[in-house]
Amino acid sequence: MKPVDPKVTKVGFIGTGVMGNPMATHILNAGYELYVYNRTESRAQSLVDSGATFCETPGAVAAECDVIFAIVGFPPDVESVFLGEQGIVAAAKAGSIIVDMTTSKPELAVEIAKVAAVKDVHSLDAPVSGGDIGAQKGVLSIMVGGEEAAFEAVLPLFKLMGANIVYQGPAGSGQHTKMANQIAIASTMIGMCESLAYAKAAGLDLETVLSSISKGAAGSWSLTNLAPKVLDGDYAPGFYVKHFIKDMGIALESSESMGVATPGLTIAKTLYDAIAAAGNGDCGTQALFKAYAQKG
Amino acid sequence: MKPVDPKVTKVGFIGTGVMGNPMATHILNAGYELYVYNRTESRAQSLVDSGATFCETPGAVAAECDVIFAIVGFPPDVESVFLGEQGIVAAAKAGSIIVDMTTSKPELAVEIAKVAAVKDVHSLDAPVSGGDIGAQKGVLSIMVGGEEAAFEAVLPLFKLMGANIVYQGPAGSGQHTKMANQIAIASTMIGMCESLAYAKAAGLDLETVLSSISKGAAGSWSLTNLAPKVLDGDYAPGFYVKHFIKDMGIALESSESMGVATPGLTIAKTLYDAIAAAGNGDCGTQALFKAYAQKG
C-alpha cells in the first residue's frame, strides 16, 4: 500500500504500549518507514523486529520524520514528550505534522499547537476510543482537532488505525470531543450499575431484566457490552478504571474552567475514586458495580 | 384472528388514553369482545364506535370479562381502579385474570395480587415501555410479574400489544423491572445532557461531536434518538417529563425501602423536578438539557 501523499514516507511513533504497539504495527505493515521511541524499550521490540528503527529520544524520532504520532500516559507525559528538551517540537522539521493521540488536556493541545506553529510545525490532537481491541483491529474512533489541512494530510495514516475518523475543529477540539465522550460514558455507567443494583435487591433475575431493558429506551453500549460482564463477575479490563479516572479528572477540570456544571460526572468520579482506593484500579470500568454492592 | 385460549373471548380495558386507546384497539381488531371504561368517557368513543361496550365503572367491566387490562395514571388511580368499591377486584369473576399495565409501585402490585388471590382472581403487573408510538405500532416492551400460568394465558393478548414480552417473576417483578429500566434511563439522560453541555461550552459543533461519540462506548438510545432533538431545539414529547418524574419518585421510594443507594437517580430526579418547576413538565424528557443551559 502506497501513502496517498507521496512525500510522507517516514513516520514516527512514540509510545508503543498496549494501544500504540498495534497502531504503529498497522503503519509499518502499510509500507511506511517507521521510527519509534518508548520509555521501556522492550515494548517496542516487536516493531523493531519487523523493521522499525528505535530512537533514543522523542526528539530523535521527530528529527527523522514527516508525521510523528504519540500516545503516552498522562498529561505530564504528553508535555514532556512534546515540549520537553528532548521532545518532539524542539527537533521537528518545518512542515512536519505532529499528532498527539493520548487522551489529554484540551488546553495542553492548544499550547502544543501554538509552540509548534512558531517552528512551522503542524499539530493535531487526535485522541481515540475503542480500546486495545479497536487498536488491534484498526477500527478506532479518532476525534481530531487542529488545522484541517494537516488533518487531510494525515487522514491516510489515520485510516490505517481507525474506522470512525472525524475532524472536530481547531486545536483542542479532538480532546474536547473525547471529554464529551467520557462524560456521556460516566453517567451511563452509573445508570447501568444502579439499575442492576436495584434489580438485584428486588430479587429479579438480572439476565432476564437485561432482556427486557437492553433493547429499548434504556439501552446503551454499556448495558449491552458491560452489564453481562457484571453478571458473570468478570471485572477484567476492557478499559481500566485508573485510566477512566484520569480522563474524568481532566473532564472535571475542563468543565470547571468553562463553567459547565457536571453533577453526574462529579458523582461518577467520586464513586470510581472510591473503588480504585479499594484496590480496583486495574479492573475494567464495569467494576463501578462494586460501589453499589449490597451487604450479604 | 382467533384467541389462542378459546375460553377467553371477553376482554376488558380500563384507561383508554394516549397509551390505552391504541392498545385496546389492537385487541378489538383481533376479534375479541371488548368492554371499556375511562374516567373521561369521550376518550373511549373511538373504541365504542368500533364495537366496544362502554361500562360505567371498572367493576362493571370486570364483571363481564375473562381478562381485564388497566393502564391509568398514578398509583392512587391504580389503587382506586383495582381495589376501590367499584373497582376491578370486587367485581371480578373467579378464575379471571387482571392485568395492571400502568407504571406503578411494586408493593401495590403485590398487594393487588394478594387481595385478588382471596377471590381466586389472578393478577399480573405488566408495565410497558415504548411510548405512544410503540402502543400504536403494537411493539411495546412488556415486563410482566405474577403467576407464570396467568402470564402464559394472557400472552396471546400481550402479543397484540407488544414485541418484547418478558416474564420477570412473581407479583411486583414487572414493576421492579420497569423501575430498573427508568433508573438506567435517568443517569443516561444526565450523561447525554452533560456531554452536550460540555461540547457546546467548548465551542464544538454538536452534530459533528455526535457523529464521533454516538456509535462507540458512549452510545445509547438517548444519544441516538434524543440528542438530535436537543440540537434541533425540539422538546416535544416523546415521553413526558411529568410522567418520568412520577416514575423516578416510585423508583426512589422503592430503592430507599430496599436500602439501595441511587445517587445518580437522586440527582436526575432533582434536575427534572427543577425543569418541571420552571414550566417544562409537558416537554419530552430531552428537556433535561435545559437544566444545563448556559448563560448567553
Outline the structure in words.
- 2 copies of one chain form a homodimer.
- In chain A, helix 9 crosses helix 13 and helix 13 runs antiparallel to helix 14.
- In chain A, strands 1, 2, 3, 4, 5, 6, 7, 8 and 9 form a 9-stranded mixed sheet that branches.
- The radius of gyration of chain A is 20 Å and the shape is elongated.
- Chain A is α/β, with parallel strands linked by helices and 296 residues long.
- Helices cover 51% and strands 14% of the residues of chain A.
- Chain A contains 14 helices and 9 strands.
- Chain A has 2 domains: 161 residues, NAD(P)-binding Rossmann-like Domain (Rossmann fold); 117 residues, N-(1-d-carboxylethyl)-l-norvaline Dehydrogenase, domain 2, CATH 1.10.1040.10.
- The interface between A and B is large, with 70 and 70 residues.
In short:
Chain A has 296 residues and is of the alpha/beta class.
